């Protein structure tokens, strides 16, 4: 009860209790403590059954009322006024029950309390209160649709077409349902063992999806399709207009459609050799937004855009960058497996132009939660999690492990500056990599700026790694070394 005292002091003393109470409830919402402060717990407190002793001229008896009815009438009226003011944050069914139960008091109810209860019901779209004289709370409760605790419509809808329950989650609805299908634990079962097995099943299924895409290149391509792909390749090299590019994109789609050989066909056509303007036309006409994330869309990205970015040595053109970002906004998982992973796993490590492209994709195309999960996967020691989609001819450009360069540390700084919240595991691994490469980049300002940003953004999670990170910083000699050491000393 003590945690609610400041709120009731507002109702007692504040000249403007509605706004002050709303602000207090918002600031205190779900704060750690013996009792969780929320709109539901507040209504639960108000409606707690309480026994009071009523004394009249002849005798005294006990009466069961709600806890709110034991408060002074002025406070009751102010609380009801607040519930009216902030009604959208409360469960409608609970508000109905509270107001109706108070109105059952009839003549015994204070005038201003009764007025406040009536106003609350009016706002909740109950214009006629004549039925209150024969009130049946049980039947009325069944009539009120409880939308407060139900899932929103956009989560109830079938998401098979979009594959992802939420676009930024790296787990599809199918994978989520699989993880929930655990058998009940027996006497000797270890719940944590079952959890780990279920998590492993999710990871294995994602890996299998990527493997199925990669294995397509081993499918035998019949001579007719191969000949047609060669003709399309010749036409691609001699395109002279946008209309011809649109026509060519349609023919490529038609050739690849339903054959399960699109990677092999695209490998023959070599669409990455087109100029950036033609690339933009091809991508916009090859991808229409309804394709499978791990299927056709991934194939288009890894065969049209990825090869251009893998060899990027100068800043990407505006048209190529815009095309890439707009496609990634719609196809998050395809962007992860067919662009981001192979780019970051580039054999020689990423350079500054590639870092700029990835930063732009992360900042404008992906949800922060998706980026956090992606970083955790990227920093993991499990190589199976880093399986990416690319054409066999580009395998020599992509490794299975991260090559830590100045630009990769700069990318991590850009991700942190985008207010991405990393897990403790990811933070610990970043500390380990910083310690490992501190000597190599001892005079690198990019590396120094990464350390400064890292310590600033992740300070609460670095306390256990303070000594290791301090040792790494002491091996550097840049303009920001003293600033990093100063921040570390204050942890």
TrEMBL record:
GO annotation, biological process: interstrand cross-link repair
InterPro entries found in the cross-reference section: FANCE
Cellular component terms per the entry's GO annotation: Fanconi anaemia nuclear complex
Entry-linked Gene3D superfamilies: 1.25.40.480
TM segment ranges: none
Name listed for the protein in its UniProt record: Fanconi Anaemia group E protein C-terminal domain-containing protein
Species this chain originates from: Anisodus tanguticus
